[in-house]
Amino acid sequence: MTRALLLLVFALLTTAQRDPVLVPEVSQHEIEVRQGFTGTELLLFGAILDPAGRAAAQDYDVVVVLQGPSQPIRLREKARFGGIWVNAASTDYRSAPSFFAVASTRPIDRIVDDRTAAIYEFGTRYIQLSPSGVIDPDEQARFSAGLVDLRTRQGLYQEDIGGVSVNERVLYQARIKLPSNVITGTYTAETFAVRQGRVIASAMSQVEVKKVGFERFIANAAQDWSLLYGIVAVALSVGMGWASSRFYSMI
């Protein structure tokens, strides 16, 4: 019995020693959002090494998942009533990623099964949303699909099958586009090495998206002095409206 246990421990240690090590990096750890920001392209790259620091002895699939800060959201469904579109049913989510992108070496269904893909969120259909309150499963699936479709059209949810390239079993890289409408906050980039349907290694890096200059001042004012900000915004709107009416009345 003792000998069998020793053999099992030895086998586990040997297997662990063969597992690769991921060394991830990103092209920008800070992205500054200024006036006229039109988006940027983020390069996620790194190396797949064995524990001794050499090139991995086997081929691995690589999946990269980039997520933005999660936020609560209310999703409304439009319905046609009397010839016009009005708000109908709605649901609230306690947590939904503001940005989500997946890049992989091959189609996800050829890399892992559905269960593993759901655990690690390898795709927009596997995003783990947190609805608030009790909701019918079919209705939840409809709203979730609607949220994914909406943010996909906005460029905030992305999938890039074949978007990860691996060179000589060592260096990998993927490019992910951040659109101009991304929100500020901390973005997490997770890299996974997969072999024979099993996640062998993972690593994480972070990217900070922040507003600078006048945009930062406006954002801070709206958050720190919300009442004053609202009063000033209304006053400016009224003033601009009055000035416009006076100008056109003089023409």
- Number of separate domains: 2
Q: What form results from the Cα inertia axes?
A: globular
Number of strands: 13
**Pairing-aware structural class of the strands and helices?**
alpha+beta
- The Cα radius of gyration reads 24 Å
Run of helices and strands: HEEEEEEEHEHEEEEEHH
Quote the average pLDDT: 81
CATH fold-type name of the largest domain: Immunoglobulin-like
- Which percent bin holds the helix content? 25-40%
Number of helical stretches of at least 4 residues = 5
CATH superfamily placement of the largest domain: Macroglobulin (MG2) domain
Strand order of the largest sheet: 2-13-12-4-7-9
Give structural notes.
The protein is 30% helix and 41% strand. The chain has 251 residues and is α+β, with helices and mostly antiparallel strands. It has two domains: 17-212, Immunoglobulin-like; 213-251. A six-stranded mixed β-sheet has the order 2-13-12-4-7-9. A hairpin with a 2-residue loop joins strand 12 (185-195) and strand 13. Helix 4 (214-224) packs across helix 5 (226-249). The longest helix has 24 residues, at 226-249. The protein is globular. The termini are far apart. Residues 3-17 have low confidence and may be disordered.
